[in-house]
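As noted in the main text, all predictions were made from sequence alone. Below is one such record, for Amidases related to nicotinamidase.
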Amino acid sequence: MAHHSRIYAKTPDGGVQLASNADRWYVYEDYVHLTPHHTEGQLLKFDAELKPFVDNANRCALVITDMQNDFCSPGGWTDASGLDYKGCREAIPGIQRAIEAARGFGMWVVWVYWHNRRDLRNLGAPTLYSFKHDPHQRGIGEDLENGPVLLEDSWGAAFVDELAPLEEEEDIHIEKVRMSGFYGTHLDQVLRTQGINTLFFTGVNTDQCVTTTMEDAYFHDYNAILLEDATSTSSPGYCKDAVVFNAKNCWGFSTTTEKFAAAEPFEG
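Prediction:
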């Protein structure tokens, strides 16, 4: 059997191989190499927990989740529901930093966001109930002062003012109708056709749409990294704490925008 096909094979330089062929990682005492099979281009070493990791910037993308008025702006759905929309806004400065760093590294930027049909026939009762627990609560598609909640082309579904100018024509845009950015969308196909294997996650809510998209990325064998200070939530603090714990202990890695921007060239 070829060396690169042997799971848990010893690497020539003292590491251990996880998986095989094009999916393999090399795990060392002090870092993890996510792309030992794809070293042309710009290799970067990122400081993270539980360990630093090395990857090729050409294979990476920044994912921005649900930075929309209905979640993050005064007068939006979160605000009208009596939840902490200001808590959601805490992600904005981190996302601004992350976008600048990602573009500097030549990474893709992926915008993932709710865009529901006006007839709401894309939504089943379980999803609708997640956001309307009693008859008086405003649910998806119902009218607020600034228009309907999270419908395509509505004010509530538009990106917040601080981030909208940072979009670029060549960015990837993924409309979704569930919490996960993978369910019922073209996200997986677009990422694979563009050769993207590693995703840095940002946005809101950390414990809902961010975490479900990150988990699905992990289930699809993408390399998943949470940028802690570029995500936020209107939920209690322990909800985000649980996501950070699982990000670095189960689904991949966790780091900050400062460490993300400070990634250094790697020569190994």
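The CA atoms of residues 176 and 185 lie 6 Å apart. The longest strand covers residues 223-231. These features were considered when defining construct boundaries for the mutagenesis experiments described in Section 2.9.
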